[in-house]
Specification:
By secondary structure, the protein is an alpha+beta fold. It is built from six helices and five strands; from the N terminus they run H-H-E-H-E-E-H-E-E-H-H. Helix 1 crosses helix 2.
Amino acid sequence: MELPPVLVTTLTFVILALLVWVLLSRTVLGRGFSVPLRNMFRPVETSQYPEKPRPVAPRFHGRHQLNRYADGLEKCIGCELCAWACPADAIYVQGADNTVEARYSPGERYAEDYQINYNRCILCGLCIEACPTRALTMTHEYEFSADQRSKLVYTKDQLIAGVPPGGDETPHTDRQVKERGLNYYGGLAVTPPTLHGGTYRPAGAAPASRAAQVVPTGDLPISDEQPTDPATVGGPTRRDPGRDR
């Protein structure tokens, strides 16, 4: 008995479809082919790079940056903790002492030389976790390739952030810093002391209610205002027991 041509054609398509389904679902080669076949029918998401680069994640680890305070002083105090924390030995820091006429940071020291070797850096972010003053952070910039290895060693001039509006380029003098009356670290201790001198209570002996009053706002005082120090902890100092003997 001869089957109708329509039935033969239908059975042929059914058998072929069954064989394709077995191939795509039951074999390793077929499962590999199924991935591009599924994506053939999805909308195209072509990134127009580099004309229109796609935004990165908020916590993306890109090129490093050395930050400044609102008045232009550098946050880096040359402690070298970032270099010690780096697992790839990609950071080199050479610290130097601040002087009365040349102050670069609010601390005793600053980073005279700061280098990051991006031939070694793995952009892990351990260095920014180790920084005690949030001087070192990571930007979203990832386009810093070079045609020579020496060009991937970034120096302090390439890493330091620009001077904020209203601030001054370093170095500053101690008198200029004292006149601003800013508390750079947000703690209860005085950093730096005021022009008027005097004795201050240690941070541990200060009342906790003062903590909310010394948080830095980042605003610089007007030049014609009387300089004040919001970080000064009032009240008498604790008596030294050794003086009564």
